[in-house]
Amino acid sequence: MDPMYAEDPVLETDDEHDMEDDHVAARMAHETVEALSEMGCRLVCIDFDATFVKVHTNGEWSQSADELALQVRAYFRYLCPLLTEKSQLTVALVTFSPQRDLIEAVLQLCFEPSVAEKIVLRCNDSSWTLQASDAETFTGIDAHHLHLDRKNKVSYVVSAGLAACKSQQSDPANYFLLHEAIKSADVLLIDDCPDNVTIASQCGIPGLHFEPASFRERLLALDKQQPSRLRRQKLAKALSRRLQQPVTLQIVCASPTKPTKPTGRTRMGFCTPSPVTKLKVTSRVGRPRSKRCTKFRILPERVAMKDEGASDTSFSLPSVLTWNAAEAE
């Protein structure tokens, strides 16, 4: 037994009547929602006959909807409202019964209108159809390997999954949180018939056999599948919370016409070099002279240095060449 509930004497027994006790049913419903959330489940498909209700109608219930509503298990009375409160979880009823109007009336009697209208209903009637290509996309298995006839729950679950995917993606609360479509691994089928659970598992749909005596233990022992998917959902949930928070933008615009806020640091000034900087300044009065003027000034000194040691007949220039700047101009 789970040590977390070892001190609770009410949940120590596995008697079938425990699920009909309001306190036990409420505790089990909260445990179920917590377990499904940890698994990353997005759709819970519940069988109707002998599962959602304690009797088997065989699709031929002749009494009133009020009489059938009394047969609804207390566990599912608490579970369905909790599931509909979760934006990333959808609950569906899948049944071979063709009495759709009867089941809808039972749901209206058991739950509030806001809860009943969120429950996806798939009966053996003409209100829904399924394409083989949609089943292949949902399960990832070729259609000729799937049991798509209405003698098992595969087609019912696939149709409910497609409807749940549309409703979840249209919910504003799931923006960027559940951008991926629902697949067969995101579904859990709860059915009292072992054959339906086995066939669904063969088609990639996880199933859980509903037996009141051991249902709680097997539910809590479900494997936490696909940890990578859980990481993606946690990241998407964090991003979704961030997107829902008010955003304050601080725009800093730097332009010649609109100065920026002073930062306290000395700004470096860069400009195009002026042609004046290319001149070699040699004037003693502060006016720059050209390179040509400077060349003629130092030319006599260079010639004199070369003429040192030359013969007397060699040509030499005076050591000082008078340069009249006014005449040069």
Query: Any guess at the CATH architecture of the domain at 22-240?
Result: 3-Layer(aba) Sandwich
Strand content bin: 5-15%
Q: Cα-atom Rg, whole angstroms? A: 43 Å
Count of alpha and pi helical runs: 13
CATH class of the domain at 22-240: Alpha Beta
Under CATH, the homologous superfamily of the domain at 22-240 reads HAD superfamily/HAD-like
Instruction: Give the oligomeric state.
Output: single chain
Strand line-up in the sheet with most strands: 3-2-1-4-5
**SSE class:** alpha/beta
Task: Give me the count of strands.
Answer: 5
Largest β sheet strand count, sense and barrel closure: 5 strands, parallel
- Kindly identify the CATH topology of the domain at 22-240: Rossmann fold
The backbone outline, from C-alpha atoms, is: elongated
- SSE topology string: HEHHHEHHEHHEHEHHHH
Distance between the termini: 111 Å
Question: Mean pLDDT, nearest integer?
Answer: 76
